[in-house]
């Protein structure tokens, strides 16, 4: 596993970690995610989602059991596709190498 290293990462301090994202409602795995920079997870950018367990082509992001995780947005500052994550809809765990 190699982190994506680009202008988006640089804009967030050049620091990344890998998160395991699970649905808070049912505990099913949603995806792995490269989180750039510190701070909480408000958005998940499509280009940072790794091995999604359900479709990321729709306007909603849902877990395998249909629980709503977030809605698709364009993050205007970077003109970048993302899902806005609902507060407390997921559990994040750092993946250690
Ligand atoms: Zn769920």
SSE layout:
Layout: H1 7-11, E1 16-23, E2 29-36, E3 43-45, E4 49-50, E5 60-62, E6 68-75, E7 80-85, E8 90-94
The site of zinc ion (ZN) has 7 residues, from loops.
Mean pLDDT: 96
Compute the number of helices: 1
State the major sheet: 4 strands, antiparallel
Tell me the strand order in the biggest sheet: 4-2-1-8
Distance N terminus to C terminus? 9 Å
Q: Shape, please?
A: globular
Structure description:
- The chain has 97 residues and is mainly β.
- The protein is built from one helix and eight strands.
- The protein has one domain (7-88).
- It has a four-stranded antiparallel sheet with strand order 4-2-1-8, with no helix packed on it. The chain has a four-stranded antiparallel sheet with strand order 3-7-6-5, with no helix packed on it.
- The structure holds zinc ion.
Essential attributes:
four-stranded antiparallel beta sheet, 97 residues, globular
Kindly summarize this structure in a few lines.
This protein has 97 residues and is mostly beta strands. It has one helix at residues 7-11, and strands at 16-23, 29-36, 43-45, 49-50, 60-62, 68-75, 80-85, 90-94.
